[in-house]
Specification:
Layout (H helix, E strand, L loop, with lengths): L2 H15 L4 H14 L8 E7 L3 H12 L6 E7 L6 H12 L3 E5 L6 H11 L4 E6 L3 E2 L3 H11 L4 E11 L5 E3 L2 H5 L13 H5 L9 E4 H7 L10 H11 L1 E13 L5 H4 L1 H13 L5 H21 L5 H12 L2 H11 L4 H8 L2
Parallel strand pairs: 1-2, 1-4, 2-3, 6-9
Antiparallel strand pairs: 4-8, 5-9, 6-7, 6-8
Helix pairs in contact: 1-6, 3-4, 9-10, 12-13, 13-14, 14-15
Organism: Hymenobacter rubripertinctus
GO molecular function, one term: hexosyltransferase activity
Keywords: Transferase
Length: 346
């Protein structure tokens, strides 16, 4: 069967699946993926950034192994974990025989450099970067590749929703998109996502996959940042379209070591660095960027960041928002946000 005919078949199958009810869709998708063994599949690289999540790693690795899509390149980069994460990966490789490119950092290099290393090692046509505590649904990669096949080359990213789970695997929320910003849950945006991303759209990295050409077009990860995803999504949006794939095809785990709990200041500082790159265009993008800058400055102040006065002053000069100016004055006077906020809500 020719490659062109393969892609045409793949596109037609996706269109047919979208017209079926949920339970029937799931069953037929699984059967289809297992029965079309004579097709030519583009390789999908799954890069796992591992750091001190030994208790969750095997669950994630098993979910990669359970993918119905047959052409997966699995890469695990351990960022000098101090728990037994390395042993978990090695024992899993020996037990399952599943092929893994496994690399260990001799010194801790941080999240962005770890994912950057995964990207450098990847050889697939598509790349998915996954945290070591998350979980993939079995059909995630198969359906994502099928959606890429249905889209033109201008589609650089396909994303879908996922669940939120706690440390024990219990569901916190059925929708990542709705949990973090309900405004985008019913009609997830597509195309150029710069404004939605600046307005508070959070993409679940665990269920987001990027076309290799998009990565090559925008260049490597900015390793000076604490968090890589927002900067990369903004840069890709400038040149490629994002497409939303309906469904819930993974699980994002939230626990006491998650970045959203342990690194709030670093996440806010990352946005300040992104803003200073000044690659926004037009009044709508700049308005959204300044709105986000004001929010991050407030969060930095609320988290008692050591440079709150400087951060707030910079944000006030950029936005000219009275609220930000008030926060700057209070921070300069040594008044904590926790003291000020109740007075403002009266």
């Amino acid at each position: 069967m020719s490659r062109a005919r393969n892609w045409k078949l793949l596109r037609n199958q996706v269109i047919g699946f979208q017209q079926l009810p949920g339970s029937a869709t799931a069953k037929l998708r699984t059967v289809w993926c297992r029965n079309h063994s004579n097709m030519i599949y583009p390789t999908v690289s799954i890069g796992i950034g591992s750091y001190n999540n030994a208790g969750y790693l095997e669950i994630l690795l098993d979910s990669v192994r359970a993918q119905t899509y047959p052409a997966i390149e699995l890469i695990v980069v351990d960022d000098c974990s101090v728990d037994n994460s390395v042993a978990v990966v090695q024992q899993w490789m020996e037990r399952t025989g599943y092929p893994v490119t496994f690399v260990r950092h001799e010194q801790n290099q941080g999240l962005v450099r770890t994912f950057s290393h995964c990207t450098q090692l990847a050889t697939g046509s598509y790349l998915s970067l996954v945290g070591s505590d998350d979980v993939l649904e079995p059909e995630l990669i198969a359906l994502t590749v099928a959606e890429f096949a249905r889209q033109p080359p201008s589609c650089g990213v396909v994303y879908t929703d996922c669940r939120l789970i706690d440390a024990d695997g219990k569901e916190i929320a059925s929708s990542f998109l709705r949990y973090f910003n309900p405004a985008y849950a019913d009609q997830p945006p597509q195309g150029n996502l710069i404004v939605p991303l600046l307005r508070g759209l959070y993409l679940p990295t665990v269920t987001t996959t990027v076309r290799r050409e998009a990565l090559e077009a925008v260049g490597p990860h900015d390793e000076t940042l604490f968090s890589e995803d927002l900067d990369m999504w903004l840069r890709i949006s400038r040149k490629f379209r994002f497409v939303h794939l309906p469904g819930t095809l993974g699980a994002y785990r939230v626990h006491n070591r998650s970045a959203i709990h342990t690194n709030r200041l670093s996440l806010n500082e990352t946005y300040f660095r992104i803003y200073r790159k000044a690659y926004f265009e037009g009044p709508e993008e700049w308005a959204a960027a300044r709105h986000s800058l004001a929010d991050h400055a407030e969060h930095y102040y609320a988290s008692e960041g050591p440079e709150a006065v400087a951060r707030l002053w910079y944000a006030f000069k950029e936005t000219r928002l009275p609220k930000v100016g008030l926060f700057w004055l209070m921070a300069r006077l040594g008044i904590k946000y926790s003291t000020l906020r109740p007075l403002m809500s009266r």
